[in-house]
Write the C-alpha cells for this entry.
Amino acid sequence: MLGLFPKSAILTAIAALMFAAIGHRSANATVFNPESFTIENGLQVVIVPNHRAPVATMIVYYKVGAMDEPPGKSGLAHYFEHLMFKGTKNMAPGEFSRTVARNGGRDNAFTSQDYTGYVTTFAADRLDLMLKLEADRMTGLRLTPEDIAPERRVVLEERLSRIDNNPRAQLSEQAGAALYANHPYRIPIIGWEHEIKSLNRADLMAFYRAWYTPNNAVIVISGDVTATNVKPMVQRHFGALPARDLPTRPDWKEPPRSADRAVSLSHPRVRQPSWSRRYLAPSYSTGDRQHIYALNVLTEILSGGTTGRLYRRLVVEQALAAHTGAWYSGDNRGPGVFGFHGSPRPGRTLDEIETAIEAEIAAVLKDGVTDEEVKLAIERLRAEAVFARDSLNAPPRILGNALMSGQSIEDVEAWPERIGAVTKKAVDAAARAVLNTDGTVTTRLTPQSKPEKKS
Amino acid sequence: MTRRLLTRWATRATATAFLLIAAVAFTDQPARALDIEPVISPGGIKAWLVRDTSVPVLSIEFSFRGGRTYDAAEKAGLSNLLSGLLDEGAGTLDSKAFQAELQNRSIRMSFSAGRDTFRGSLKTLNKHRDRAIGLLDLALTKPRFDTEPLERMRQQSLISLKRRSTNPDYIAGRTWATAVFGDHPYAIPSSGTPATIAGITRDDLVEFVRERFARDLLIVGVTGDITAAELAPLLDRAFGSLPESKVLPAIADATPRLTGDTYVVELDVPQSSIIFGQPGLRRDDADWYTGLVMNYILGGGGFSSRLYSEVREKRGLAYSVGTGLHPMRLSALISGGAGTKNANVAESLKIIRAEWDRMRTGGVTADELSRAKSYLTGSFPLRLSSTDRIARMLVSIQYHDLGIDYIDKRANYINVVSAESIAKLARRLLDPGKLTFVVVGKPAAVTPTAPAPQI
C-alpha cells in the first residue's frame, strides 16, 4: 500500500479527509497515560512519556484558528502562523528555525479552523532550550514590514500550490462555502486571495495580542521526558507571562436548512470525474456525543479499507467505481461533517456512482448494520490505538486535537472503552440521525473539453 | 474540507518528494546507539533486529534488490502493479478472504516498487504475529493474481495515470526523468503508461514472483517486542520458501544526460512546477559526507538552507524550495524542486543558478559548516520514532553496506568534513553548465533552450 499505487492513493486521500476521525481512533485508555499540570497563568502542559529514544516532540497549541478571524480578514490565522518564525526582541527573524536546526531539531507549524500548533522535534536534552524559545515568541514577537511583505508572497504561493493549481481543491473550497450557511467554517483556512492581500501589520498584531496568551495555550510533549523534570522548566520560562482576558467567542450555530445544494466544477485539467456528498453531523462541541462514537464505527463499517461496504460493493462487486469511501470528522469546535465520495471506472458515470452510494445509504437506513460488522470495526479501531503509541507525533497530535475541540484528557483515555461500548442499535440510530437530514451538499468534478476562458 | 490543516512547509508532491527523501536517508547521529542484533534463522535467513519492548507490536521491513528498473520497457509499471496485488489473494484465500484476514486483525502489509529495490512492510500487534507471518509467506510465494483483483488494480492504475496526466508536478517529474535518463531503464515511468499497463498479463506477474524474489536478494530489518530466539523461526516461516538465489540481468550505468538546458512544458496553471539538478554522488562515493554537508547548506536544510533563505525567506518567491542528494545504484543526481507563480519563475531560476555558482566558487562559511554539522549529527535520533522507521533504517544500512557499527561512526564521518573539502568538492561537482531545469506551467520571460523531451 505504499508508493504511488492507486489503491493506496485512495486510502491516503481518505486518511486526509478523515484526519480527525483517525486521530480519535488512536486514543486508548491504558495507552497514553498522560501526565498533566497547569501553572498559575493558566498554561496547561500535558506529557506523554516514551523512553524508546532520547528524543521528544513538543506541540504548542493555541486555541485560535481560522474560525476566530474577524470578518473580512480571512487567512489571518494562517498568515500569522508563518510570521511566528520571524523575530523577537531576543531573536533575529528566522533565528528560531536556525536555532532549532543547530541543535539537531526540526520545526514546523499548522493551522486549522479550530487551532494553531507549533511543532518541534529534538533531542530530549534540549527541551529547556525549546521551551525558552517558545516562551519567547508566545508574547515577544516583533513584526516589521520587511518580515510581513515577503511572507505574504509565500502565503499567496502556498494558496496557488494548494488550491489554485488544483481543480479538486477548488471544488472542495466551494463545497465548504456551500455547506455552512453561517458558521465561519465556510471560509477556507488559507483565506480568500483578495483578503490575504489586504491583511496588514495592525491586523496581525491585534490578532497576536488577542489570542497568544498562556491561558489560551496547551503544550503537549511526548518522548523521553517526565512531568517532574518538565515542570520547573515550564515554570521558569512561562511563569512570568501574564494571563490575559480572551475575546468573547461567538457561539456560532448553523440554522436549520431544508435545501440540498449542488456544487459542480468542470475544468480542462480534470481527467477523472468524481462525486461527493456532505452532511452536517454531530461534533464534540455541538452534537450528541453519544452519536460520535457510533459514527466512528459506522465510518469504519462503510469505509474501512478494502473490506468496507462501499469498496466491497462499488469497487469489487459492481466494478463500477475506481475509488469510493466515507469520512467523518467530529472532533471540531464547530459542526462535524459526514461525507461520501466516489469516482467511476472508465465507461461508467457520476450518476451511476451517485445512485450506487445512495443505495448504500438507503440500505444502512433501512436495514442497519450487522452485529458482526460492529464487532470487527470496534476491534480494528481499538487496534489503531495501540499503533498510535508506536509513534512520537501521534500522541501530541491526538491529545492536542482533543483538548482544542472541547474534550478532556479523560475523554481521550476513555475512547477505546466508549468505542467498545457501541452497539448495532447505536450505529443504526446515529446513521438515521445524520443521513436522514436535509441540507446536504453534493459535488461533481468533471472534465471540460474546451479550454477555460477566464484568467 | 478535505484539508483541515495547513502546514508551514511541504515538499512539492511526488515529483520533488522523491528527490528529497533519499537525501535525508542517513543524515544524523544518535545520542546513544541502537543495539542491533544480527539474527540468522535455522534456515539461513539473515536479519538485523532491534528489540523494543515499549509497544506490543512487531515491524518487519524488507527489500529485494532489483526493483522496477528490471521491468521490461514494454511492461513498464509491472512492479508497481504487482505491489498492489500481492495482498489481493494468495494460497487458498481469495482477495476478499485475504483482505479480511488482514483487516480483521489490523495487520498492516504493504509493498512498493522502488527504482533499485522492491520493498515490503509488515506491522502487526504481537498477538497476531503468527498469522501475519503466515500471510506474508503466502503473499510472497503463492499470490493468486485472480482476474477480478487484477482487472480492478489495472483500472485503478490507468485512472491514476489519467488523473496525473495534467498534474504539473507529475509532468515535471516525467519530463525530468526522460531528459536525464533518455532510453536507460531509469527513465521508464514508475507506474507505466496506459499502453504498458493494458498489456500486462497474469503470466507476467507470475514470472515476476518466480524470477525477482529470492533469498540472496533479500535484506531484512526487524524491530519490536521480540527476542532473537523468537524471531529466528519466524524468519524461516516468512521467507524460507523463497528460492535460494536468482541472477538479475546486468544493466549498464545510467550517465545523466544533463546539458544545462532549460526545458519548458506549457500547461495552463497559475503556478509553475520546477525541477532542477545535475549529476551527483553515489552513496559509496568517498566524498559522500562532504556532499551531504554541502547539500544541507545549499538547499537541503529545511528552513535554514541558502536556497530557502534567498528564494522564500527574503523574497517570498516560492512556498517550497529545496535540494537533495539522490544516489541510485546506477547513477546519481543532486537535484531539487520549487513551485512559484508564473511571473516569478525567471527570477527563481536566476537565484538558483546564482546559488549554485556561489557554492562552486565561494564554498561555505565556518558558521554554516558548524550549523550543518550540528544539525546532521544531532538530529539522528529523531528518526527512531517508531518500530517501522527503525526497521527501515536497518534495511538501508544493510542495503548500502555501511556496517553494523555505522550509527556509532556516523557522527565522525560528518565531523571530519571541512570547509576546504566542501570547496574542493563544489569545484569538482557543481557545474552550472550542467545545471538543467524543467519548468511546467506558463512561465513569463523564460526562454527554453531546447524542446522538452516527449513523455
Summary: Chain A touches chain B through 108 residues (CB under 8 Å). Residues 42-238 of chain A form a domain with the Cytochrome Bc1 Complex; Chain A, domain 1 fold (CATH 3.30.830.10).
